[in-house]
TrEMBL record:
Residues 409-431 are annotated as: Disordered. InterPro entries: Cl-channel_core (IPR014743), ClC (IPR001807), ClC-type_chloride_channel (IPR050368). This is Voltage-gated chloride channel family protein. It is found in: Membrane. CDD domains: ClC_sycA_like (cd03682). It comes from Vogesella amnigena. The chain crosses the membrane at residues 22-44, 56-73, 149-174, 218-238, 259-278, 326-359, 379-400. Keywords: Membrane, Transmembrane, Transmembrane helix. It is a multi-pass membrane protein.
Length: 431
């Protein structure tokens, strides 16, 4: 019996339409996300400068929180889940994300920074990138599988353009979806979108912050051992941040049923604390303090103060990201650990910068690449070791409750569950 013989084409031939399709789609995503990030970063610069010049604005934080809470209650309930909505739609596509997510999170985050909330910027850039990218689903009538990929490309583009780290951004879009799993079918679109979005933001004139690690010591037995110890501390800090933020958010919902009153209450407490205590260095992004962490010893409690104020801000409902506060917490915690571990201060500040994020977001690969992009490739061995240990020590928790459990870190877990559905204690129900 003979079998029909099919013509064999060289593999690159059918690959060309695939590459062409995703080159065009990724370029469109990059143009949208990179431009949105540029607008966002310029708006943040204005908001930060205005707040620092007018310290009394902190007293308007409760009213600002109420206003943003009311806008989300009235117009944004479909998009309030933010990054978690993007992750859910990638895993289980249902309907195109409303375009209103982009202006709502942009305005809400700028208002948070203008009046003094301690929040970040990654969540905003990722949500804008994802929401804008998803509008191409309707335009090009994309099927579910292609829609998943374009959402991932939007996440990568937003992350890369807001931080100026295209390789970390590309891998973040692949890695953040599930613990222990990577989606390699989206690697080309995520890589293209991240690299191009970063270039688009630079063309708009964006200038990213620079952190200097002037000397990376040669690899030594003590250096590696110290990274194991530091990585464990960074992972526990990331876990504390994530768990405390989720716990306060849940408690606020139990205490205060009407959503706009939650940021009003949290904003009032934050305003009183900021007026009574010298807390200015912990408000907003805190980039000057992060730069200082690479240059000189800081107060050993800086990381704890930033963690507490960010948990209060995010847990009570203010809009913004978690990642830049995690960078701040990591850099200042590394600054405090450096003399104890007898390592150069800039080295441990740089490693902490990415390792606390690695533990809280469950993204050790993206975090390692970010360290190498920001501080140079020589830091790679130290950063990789600390990020992996931080990832392991943070347990099965994280800042994104919609992350799926692809594979347990060090013990069997029910695969496919959202992090928010995982029992926290033996015999306990889901969160």
């Amino acid at each position: 019996m003979t079998h029909p013989v099919h013509p064999i084409h060289p593999e690159p031939v059918p690959l060309l339409p695939y590459i062409g399709k995703w080159l065009l789609l990724s370029a469109a995503v990059a143009a949208l996300a990179g431009s949105a990030s540029a607008l966002f970063l310029f708006s943040l610069e204005w908001a930060t400068a205005t707040r620092e010049a007018s310290r009394w604005l902190i007293w308007l934080l409760p009213l600002a929180g109420f206003a943003v809470g009311w806008l989300y209650l009235r117009y944004g309930q479909q998009v309030e889940a933010g990054n978690n909505l993007l992750i859910d739609e990638i895993h289980d596509p249902k309907k195109v994300i409303p375009l209103r997510m982009a202006p709502l999170v942009l305005g809400g985050t700028v208002i948070s920074h203008l009046f003094g909330a301690s929040v970040g910027r990654e969540g905003t850039a990722v949500q804008m990138g994802g929401a804008l990218a998803d509008q191409l689903t309707r335009l090009f009538r994309l099927q579910h599988e292609d829609r998943r990929i374009i959402l991932m490309a939007g996440i990568s583009a937003g992350f890369a353009s807001v931080f100026g780290t295209p390789l970390a951004g590309a891998v973040f879009g692949l890695e953040v979806l599930a613990i222990g799993r990577l989606r390699y079918d989206a690697i080309l679109p995520c890589m293209l979108a991240a690299i191009l979005a970063d270039q688009v933001s630079l063309l708009w004139g964006v200038q990213h912050s620079h952190y200097l690690v002037p000397h990376i010591p040669a690899v030594s037995a003590w250096g590696l051992a110290a990274m194991l110890l530091a990585g464990a501390v960074f992972g526990l800090a990331g876990k504390l941040f994530a768990d405390a933020t989720h716990a306060l958010s849940a408690q606020m919902k139990r205490w205060i049923a009407y959503a706009p009153l939650r940021p009003l209450a949290g904003g009032l407490l934050l305003a009183v604390l900021a007026w009574a205590l010298p807390l200015d260095r912990y408000l907003g992004l805190g980039i000057p303090t992060m730069v200082e962490a690479f240059q000189q010893p800081l107060a050993p409690y800086d990381f704890a103060a930033k963690l507490a104020l960010t948990v209060l801000s995010l847990g009570s409902g203010f809009k913004g990201g978690e990642v830049t506060p995690l960078f701040y917490i990591g850099a200042t915690l590394g600054n405090a650990l450096a003399p104890l571990l007898q390592l150069p201060l800039p080295l441990l500040a740089g490693v902490g910068f990415v390792a606390v994020f690695a533990g809280a977001a469950n993204t050790p690969l993206a975090s390692t690449l970010m360290a190498m992009e920001l501080f140079g490739s020589d830091i790679g061995i130290y950063a990789a070791l600390a990020c992996v240990v931080s990832y392991l020590c943070s347990g099965h928790s994280g800042i994104y409750k919609a992350q799926r459990l692809g594979q347990g870190k060090h013990r069997p877990v029910p695969e496919g569950l959202r992090l928010g559905e995982l029992p926290r204690k033996p015999g306990a129900g889901p969160e």
